[in-house]
Each structure stands twice: as C-alpha cells, then as structure tokens.
Design goal:
- Helices cover 32% and strands 27% of the residues.
- By secondary structure, the chain is α+β, with helices and mostly antiparallel strands.
- Helix 1 (2-13) packs antiparallel against helix 2 (19-31), helix 1 packs parallel to helix 4 and helix 6 runs parallel beside helix 7 (209-228).
- The strands form three sheets. Strands 3-2-1-6-5-4 form a six-stranded antiparallel beta sheet, with helices on both faces. A six-stranded antiparallel beta sheet has the order 7-8-17-16-13-14.
- Strand 4 (78-81) and strand 5 form a beta hairpin.
- The mean pLDDT is 93.
- The longest helix is centred in the middle third of the chain and has 20 residues, at 209-228.
Length: 395
C-alpha cells in the first residue's frame, strides 16, 4: 500500500493532462505493465474513447461486445489470459461514487497471476478517477475523450450542467441518460445528497436549441440556489418559478418534477410542476404514479405549489421520463408510455440501474421506428435499497 500512497501523492502533484502518464509509469515500474490505456465512456454510452492527445487518434471500442465494455458494464475487472498461458490482458472499471467514468486497460507480462494484483490495480483506478474529476476544471483532455463527435452548443450547455450520469449510496443507486446525446436541448436532471436526504429533479424546458438550453440552465440554477439557501421543496419551486417568470414574463416555461427522499425512512415529498412523469416497478408490477399536476415554472407570476407525499420501499425501482419518451409515437400512432414503456421497465428487473436508461431508450428507438427522435428524451432510474433499520410502509 506504500506504493499506492506514493502514486496518489504523485497524481495530486501532476499537471492535469499528465495523469495517465503518471499511472503508466507507476504500473510499468511495479508490474512491468505494457499498453496502459485509459478509455472514457462517450456521452451516448455507446463507445469507449481513448484518452490521448491529439484526440480520436485511436479507434474507439464499443461498450457492448468488447473486453473493455464488459468490464465497464459489469463494473468488475475482466482478465484475458495470464498464468502459465503468458501475458494477461486486464481491464478495470474507473468509477467514482457510482459514476461510471470508463476503463483502465493494461497488459501484464507472463507468466503472471493477474488476479492476485487486482485489488491493488483497483486502488489505482480509484485514485485516477478522483484526480480526473478534479483535473477537468483545468483541462479539456478528458472532456474531449468523452465525445465521439461534436456536440451542438445546446448539448454542450446541458452536459456541463449535469451532476454526473450515475450516483450510488448505501440507500440508493441512480442511472440517467439523455438522447440524442450530442444534440439534446431542453431536458435535464439534477441531484444532491446530504446526510439525511436525496433531492432529485427532472426538468424539461420548452423550445429548441440554445433557447431551450438557456431556459433550462436558468431553472436548474434557480432550483440549486434555493436548495443551497435552505428552502424546502415548495420554496425551491416558488423561487425558480419567480426567476423564470421574471426573465420571460410567461413567454416560456419549464416543466419539472421535484422530489426529496428521506434516506432513513423512504418517505418522499414531491412537487409535480409539469410534464416529467414517474413509473414504479414493485414486486414485478409496473404502475404510473398519479401525481396532482401543477403549473410549470414561469407560466404565471407567484404560482403557489403544494407538496404531495408517498413512501418508497426497499426493492422499489423508480423510472422518471420526459415527454420525449412517453409521448413518442410508433408508426401506428401508439404512445410509448401507454404500453411499451411499462413493458420495457418490467424487462429491466435483472439489470443494474445504471443500465436501465439505455435499455429503455433502445426500446424507445424500436418503438419509434425512425432514425431520430422528434424531441429529446430523458430517462432516470432510481433503485431504492433503504437504510438498514429504517422504517417505511407502502405508499
């Protein structure tokens, strides 16, 4: 562990764009490693892109049907070869607090017992992942590695606004995805975790392009400002409503679903101000949750919002979707949210929550039957485990 501590210190001192070089040097000196490469997941969660300069010099590998993708999807090390067979090819997930960043790949010389050193190598991945998140403040290297093609300006604004694509705590796990990833404009999500609560918001700003992105940015930051000022959920909705109305005077509005989960009990306070909707998978059955719809943010001045309450139980899976998901029509004119979405959610019961949004969006593409969606689409999946010893009754 002395070597791991030394590596962590070296990473903290390194220039932001040299993190992989530091790791490569350390792994070469300690294990004789070769072909050390870092892959980051692209915005569409379809490919893993090599971190290198200049960008895109190396062909990306698919998230599905590749050794790197297997480690990324399973969130476990994947080893090929090794032992008496000779060199071992090792792929390890790079994940920080449930946010799946990518994969570290390397080759260990043979004969070697690669599995014996996997715990140390995973410590290296953890240290590297933490430093990448810090380094992104000062370099574009890792941001560029996440994109398979150029983002629109609206998508650039939206992705920079997001907290991450997944998050995990003992009480819950979240996975989220936006589509079309490189041209999304109005949909967004946000979360924040304290010692006792998870606050989750799902947002859909009206309009298209940068107009929609600007509107959503205003609403999300207004909600954050209110939350960080200590306002309750109703106060957060009211402040954001006033901010949007003051800027647009009713010409534009933002639909948002705000939820605050008590980590100890599973009790949930919710404010439904518009179009994002919720489905619950419990004991194999899928139900749409019937919120009392209230006015979107910014539609009128001084809108009064009323909270609702329900309870989640350990084992519950919640799926949040924007209107671009549940209102998408098949060629026969059937809405995805009528029957196809509940079936898609039920079919994900064996998948981890990080893989659920992608699975649902793939079913949406099959249902839609056309090359591209008319609207952008957002899916957020929340698995609730509960706190050991916590209460909660069905609701």
């Amino acid at each position: 562990m002395e070597e791991i501590a030394a590596l962590e210190r070296a990473l903290r001192r390194a220039a932001p764009h040299t993190l992989l070089d530091v790791v490569r040097t350390a792994l070469t000196e300690r294990y004789g490693a070769r072909e050390v490469r870092l892959w980051l997941a692209d915005y569409g969660m379809r490919s893993l892109q090599a971190v290198e300069g200049p960008p895109w010099a190396t062909e990306p590998v698919p998230v599905h049907d590749s050794p790197q993708g297997r480690a990324f999807g399973a969130q476990e090390p994947h080893v090929l070869g090794g032992g008496a067979a000779g060199p071992a090819e090792v792929h390890l997930p790079v994940t920080i607090r449930g946010d799946r960043l990518g994969v570290l790949s390397l080759e260990l010389p043979g004969p070697t017992d690669a599995r014996a050193v996997l715990p140390e190598l995973q410590h290296v991945c953890d240290a590297l992942g933490h430093e990448i998140l810090v380094a992104e403040r000062d370099t574009d290297l890792y941001v560029l590695a996440r994109r398979a093609t150029r983002l629109t300006l609206a998508a650039e604004m939206q992705w920079q606004l997001l907290p991450g694509r997944s998050c995990a705590r003992p009480e819950f796990s979240i996975g989220a995805q936006l589509e079309p990833a490189y041209a999304v404009f109005g949909d967004n999500y946000d979360w924040s975790v304290s010692a006792e609560h998870l606050t989750l918001t799902v947002t859909n700003g009206m309009g298209e392009g940068t107009d929609a992105a600007l509107l959503t940015n205003l609403a999300v930051n207004a909600l954050r400002n209110a939350r960080r000022a200590g306002l309750d959920l109703v106060g957060q909705a009211a402040l954001a409503d006033q901010a949007v109305y003051a800027q647009y005077r009713g010409r534009a509005h933002v639909s948002v679903l705000l939820l605050r989960f008590a980590l100890a009990t599973g009790e949930v306070e919710a404010v439904d101000a518009g179009s994002p909707r919720l489905w619950r998978l419990r004991d194999g059955a899928v139900d749409a949750y019937p919120f009392e719809a209230q006015l979107p943010l910014g539609m009128f001045e001084d809108t009064v919002y009323t909270p609702e309450h329900f309870t989640v139980l350990p084992g519950d899976r919640l799926l949040f979707a924007s209107d671009g998901v549940y209102d998408a029509l098949s060629e026969a004119g059937e809405r995805f949210g009528d029957r196809a979405l509940p079936r898609a959610l039920a079919s994900t019961r064996l998948l981890p929550p990080t893989q659920v949004p992608g699975a649902v969006l793939r079913r949406l593409a099959e249902h839609h039957g056309r090359p591209s969606l008319v609207d952008d689409a957002l899916v957020v999946c929340l698995d609730w485990y509960g706190r050991q010893g916590g209460g909660g009754t069905a609701g």
